[in-house]
Design brief:
The structure is a single chain. This protein has 7 helices and 8 strands; from the N terminus they run E-E-H-E-H-E-H-E-H-H-H-E-E-E-H. It has 230 residues and is of the alpha/beta class. A 3-stranded mixed beta sheet has the order 1-2-3, with helices on one face. Strands 6-7-8 form a 3-stranded antiparallel beta sheet. Strand 4, helix 3 and strand 5 form a beta-alpha-beta unit. The longest helix has 24 residues.
Length: 230
């Protein structure tokens, strides 16, 4: 379940009929090798600029066609790949890869189902933490901690990374991706909760709208109209 954390360094996955190889930065030492999928892991150092591309050239023959995901590759990096592999024709496979990811295996569906159950636990933790005067960040922390503990229980020997909670109140709910703030919850507030259990890199979410203490008439009319349309 290795998920890379770049911090300005590059990572790669080479897939061919003969092998599956991960390429990782030396700063991560043996962790990618311990957690990776595939046949082996190649580690490059920072001692010389662009060592990453030397590692890529070591694993990919300088001939034929190579598919890469253009939507995940800045132009500068693509040009450097062309420099170290001048005889290769690079082909964009980003859309094809996305289509493949949309079709989940039975194992993935079982995994995602577990993730959804963890998100439910985060949602219950949000509701339990809400009270007048509590800051958004405290509500979010309660949810995130509950989910992390549940993941640790369901998936022993797993990496615990990137599970988190969005919780917005009042005016802060106007944008879907507004950050958590220190705003205190007030009576009559509309509340938005988004619980994300990121288990082994799989995104699962619980998204709900709530009102604290009471719902004003105007909001209730909109709510009922949405329910009717739904």
């Amino acid at each position: 379940d290795f998920i890379y954390c770049s911090f300005g360094r590059f990572y790669g996955l080479v897939v061919s009929p003969e092998k599956v190889v991960t390429i990782s930065a030396n700063i991560d030492a043996g962790q990618p090798w311990r957690r990776t999928v595939g046949d082996y892991n190649v580690v490059y150092t920072d001692w010389q600029r662009d060592n990453y591309f030397k590692a890529v050239a070591q694993e990919i023959p300088n001939r034929g066609r190579v598919g890469i995901e253009f939507d995940h590759l800045p132009l500068e990096r693509l040009n450097k790949l062309k420099t170290v592999l001048p005889n290769v024709q690079f082909v964009d496979i980003s859309a094809a890869c996305m289509k493949l990811r949309m079709i989940k295996s039975a194992e993935e569906i079982a995994h995602i189902t577990q993730g959804a159950a963890v998100c439910d636990i985060g949602g219950f933790a949000v509701t339990a933490a809400i009270r007048e005067g509590v800051p958004e960040h405290e509500v979010a922390l309660a949810s995130t901690q509950a989910m992390v503990r549940e993941i640790a229980k369901r998936f022993p020997n797993s990496e615990l990374m990137d599970t988190w909670t969005w919780f917005q109140s009042g005016i802060n709910t106007d944008g879907a991706h507004n950050p958590v703030t220190t705003r205190q919850v007030q009576k009559g507030d509309i509340l938005s909760l988004n619980c994300f259990s990121m288990i082994a890199g799989y995104y699962t979410a619980l998204e709900r709208t709530q009102f604290f203490d009471h719902c004003d008439d105007a909001s209730l009319r909109i709510w009922e109209a949405n329910v009717k349309v739904h």
